[in-house]
Amino acid sequence: MVNEQMRENWNAGAAGWVENEAIFDAVFAPVTAAVLKAAEVEPGHRMLDVGCGSGTLLAAGTGAGASAVGVDISEVMAEAARRRVPEADVIVADAQVTDLLEAVPGKRFDRVVSRFGVMFFDDPVAAFANIRRACEPGARMVFDCWRTEEENPVFTAGSSVILERLEPQPEPSDLNAPGPTAFADADRLASLLSDAGWESIGIAPFDFECDYGIGGGDGVEERLASILGSGVGRLAKERLQPELGPEGWEALLDEVRAELRGHLVDGVVKFPGATWLVTATNP
Ligand SMILES: C[S@@+](CC[C@H](N)C(=O)[O-])C[C@H]1O[C@@H](n2cnc3c(N)ncnc32)[C@H](O)[C@@H]1O
Fold this sequence. Notes:
283 residues, alpha/beta, 22% strand
């Protein structure tokens, strides 16, 4: 089955994401706002959120008067989205291969949106072509995706302390392999979208501040919580926590906190965030 590895990863990782949903929503709020502004969702639109996760954009879409449909490969994510946005239709499905109009009958989509939900396909051309087939002529797609890991300290700050202790360390993946930074190469991304039949493709840098200082704190605990909820945190809990015991584990967490304090900007954990804001039209 295609995208099997990602299905497993996201089913395993969804609980950590949902648990920290409020932190992600605060840190990624500028991205959410940028996607929504470019999408210009209007009352009466049918909007598809690809890789909808726990439903941030679905909530915004229904709030704007659209009829919102979420597709996510992870059952746990979809359940969370249904709880959060009961008025949206949310399906557990692989957006690369599922006939979306058959799965959620209704009119063709006027808008496709995604916040960090489209970089995980085994075959991105097949996926973007499949999504396009469910769209109205003239429909607009807007998504945001990460640029390189080097430009985004959010991938390593704090978690590098844990990674160094994990034996064997997770393999670094091929730059274009499915994963958060799969679309860092804008020329490659433009070709993929064009090969999938999309037109008027725009790929513009969108830079923002990943600001963990939620509610006026220094953001250290928020950043730590999001690391522990991620894949690295999961591996650490499985492999290191039993081996280190309660005191050793707390000592490791203190090391992470100390590393994070090295990233304080004006007393708060903040990193530059480097993404592409992508727009495209179905001819
Ligand atoms: C980084 S999370 C982003 C979640 C959400 N968009 C947000 O911003 O909170 C990526 C999401 O894409 C979903 N996903 C990955 N591969 C997918 C696929 N082939 N079809 C549908 N969803 C997929 C994952 O299950 C996960 O919920």
